[in-house]
Every structure is written in C-alpha cells, then in structure tokens.
Design a protein that fits this description.
Structural class: mainly alpha
Number of strands: 2
Order of helices and strands: HHEEHHH
Strand content: under 5%
Distance between the termini: 44 Å
Largest sheet: 2 strands, antiparallel
Helix content: 55-70%
Strand order of the largest sheet: 1-2
Number of domains: 2
Number of helices: 5
Length: about 100
Amino acid sequence: MGLFHWSARKLMMVMGYAYVWLDRRVKYTDEEVSAVLGLKIDDDLQKCSRYELCQRVEKEFGLKEGEFWNLHSTQKIRFAVQSVRNMKGPSKFEMGY
C-alpha cells in the first residue's frame, strides 16, 4: 500500500470519527427521520442513533457486534445493496424476459 493510499485511509478514519461526533450532536427534524426517499421509517427506528441502527443491522444479518459499525460508509452501502440484491433475486431483465 502506497503512502497516498495509507494517508487517504487514515484521513477517512479521522473524518468518520468527526462525522459520528457531529452526528451525535445534531437534532434531526421529524421530516428528516420520518421518511427517507419516500420510504416511511417506523417510529422505533426514527428514535435510534447511528450506532443503534448499526446494531440493528448486525442483529438482523447475524453479524458480530461492531462488525457493521466499524465499516467505512461506502462498505456499508455496498453491503446494503448486495443484501437487497440477494433478497430480491434476479430481475426479469437478468432472466431474459
């Protein structure tokens, strides 16, 4: 791993800690937590912190404690997208319809 790659990863880690620190101090509006991209969010999930949401993901997918929480943001998104793809199965397009 080159110096740039190493430096970029360290900077991402520091930025991640800063984001989590700031996120704990931000009060989200009802509009921001009640729905995301038109998807209604259940009341119990609206009240969860970022850490609590990650714990729920870990529980739902049978992951070890901290395993999802410790991923970088892009890795979390990649995991979610692949999980949804696996749950949905192949599309009609992929099956040749």
